[in-house]
Give the backbone structure.
Amino acid sequence: MNDFHYKALPLDVYFGNGKSKGVKEILTQHGYQRVLVLTTPEQEGAGQKLAEQLESISAGVYPHAVMHVPVEVANKAVEYVQANNIDCCLALGGGSTIGLAKAIALKTHTPIVAIPTTYAGSEMTTVYGLTENNLKTTGKSIHVLPKVVIYDPELSVTLPADISACSGMNAMAHAVEALYAQDKNPIISLMAVDSIRALNVALPAIVQNPQDLEARQNATYGAWLAGICLGSVGMAIHHKICHTLGGTFNLPHAQAHAITLAYSVHYNRNADIEAMDLLAGALGVASREEIGLAIYRLNQSLNIPLALKDIGLPEHGPEKVAQIICDSPYYNPRGYDYDELRDLLSKAYQGLPPV
């Protein structure tokens, strides 16, 4: 076995059905006394219920999280936290809410406790993202890693099937890219493969029956593993594409990940043979030549939109995205070929298979 360097994440993780009901006791054990619940506007009601559970340690609800964490939204939240002497941000929701908590923590070092209700995975990482002037930038800081993460599969039962599917494919993308990351290692690869297998089985079951608690548990497990992958190794071309789609064109994050993953892995199918063979095995296909089509067909079975044009990408988008990612590339096991990427993104724009 080759030498490798593995970073373990220093945080407490609680996992189990109904686990969020014990949130006050968990927060009290950590010494928090003025806890602000963060949500999106859509989840404000759920946030109010959570704040009521906190009783005397609640500092209210801040329901202003939005996609891609615009800088102006982050700055207002930072001012609110500082003005109200908040000693913990309790993020209830998905990547938008946890992203806002991270933006606050980056500036104020206010501890984060995360209760994910989607499969985004951001809660297990030191990665943050901010959007300014239509460009999304990302960075890493130990200050944005939550101190506590509480996984409660019961909370995801009410997540609509279409959002569950896209969010789960977003999680799968983290695990997929961990397999061919620049700093990949055997431990994370094991987690990545198990994550992909779990999500590949759980997501179709959830679409068939959103109330299937066992499938919700498996999806939460897969997303947790994917989050560890995202937080432990670097990402590659797929994440560069999606950050560009989100930051430049404000496309919905999970849907953009779900649609483009098939094209990203098809582009890389011969770049890291070991990784792609692992991916083929996790997806249950015979050859790495089939992995892009396998993910495309999985999206079809999940009723995920197949075309970037259907989620808001303009006609000139493929050319623009290809140019941006080639001008400022992330690491990738294969070089960035503008013409091939433009053609693949054109197929993604139209919703055509990645072959």
User: Anything to note?
Assistant: The radius of gyration is 19 Å.
